[in-house]
Automatic annotation (TrEMBL):
Species of provenance: Aquibacillus halophilus
Keywords: ATP-binding, Nucleotide-binding, Transport
Annotated ranges, domain ABC transporter: 3-228
CDD domains assigned to the protein according to its UniProt record, in alphabetical order: ABC_MJ0796_LolCDE_FtsE
Homology family: Belongs to the ABC transporter superfamily.
Protein name: ATP-binding cassette domain-containing protein
MF terms (GO), sorted A to Z: ATP binding; ATP hydrolysis activity; transmembrane transporter activity
InterPro entries on file: AAA+_ATPase, ABC_transporter-like_ATP-bd, ABC_transporter-like_CS, MacB-like_ATP-bd, P-loop_NTPase
Pfam family, one: ABC_tran
GO cellular component, one term: membrane protein complex
Amino acid sequence: MGLSIQKVNKIYQSGGTEFHALNDINLEIEIGEICVILGPSGSGKSTLLNAIGGIDQVESGSIAINDWNVSSLKNKQLVTFRREMVGFVFQMHNLIPNLTVYENIELAANISEAPLKIDEMIKAVGLEGMADRFPRELSGGQQQRVSIARAIVRKPKLLLCDEPTGSLDSNTSKEILTLIKQVNRNYNTTILIITHNQAISQMADRVIKLKDGRIDSVSVNDTVYEPE
Ligand code: ADP
Ligand code: ADP
């Protein structure tokens, strides 16, 4: 159980030439881990994250998460997999500007569970009293909190974050980091984070370095830094 990636290859075709974005990736991640993915720009970090999250398909190899064999799922099953298993957080939070905080989260929620679940999430990410605000009325950090609430409202087993603090100052980054850690603790969510943020790497259980579409190194942190 957990996340198991075996011999994964991803090739992009562009202008008649092939580009090997992922080469024979093997990786094992346990349930409940926080895992950081490092590597220079173009090393395949987003490609790997998107493949794990089922928003991008791979040429060969297998990606398995719990009972799901992600790499062999077809379109409709992929949608189900994403809805049941995965939450995404991006650098640019992608909130819908003309919807309120509440409505942005509602879009991702199970109808049967709303509105109780939405209120719970707003509280969980520290945005009490802000349900009726629009994204433009919030700070960058608050907007990212909304996108985390949206990502976890279905209680995904896997939270995938692509540069979640990439456009935030260091204090705000720290708050977001603390929040991500809370999600990990409270829901035992397995979390994968692409980041250049050193503090996040210190908090991670496992640090994976990519280089030219290959695993350069995997290190397991014995002493995990705890954000206060
Ligand atoms: P990283 O996230 O580490 O910056 P990416 O996974 O975004 O790297 O990209 C890895 C490589 O694959 C880059 O060279 C990028 O230009 C290329 N690439 C990414 N997406 C596509 C695509 N849709 N079509 C062609 N090439 C792509
Ligand atoms: P990152 O911030 O991860 O480095 P990029 O700026 O490389 O992301 O890419 C942003 C988006 O553009 C990604 O979704 C990626 O799939 C796509 N992309 C990147 N490189 C190419 C490319 N050469 N051709 C087509 N799409 C690409």
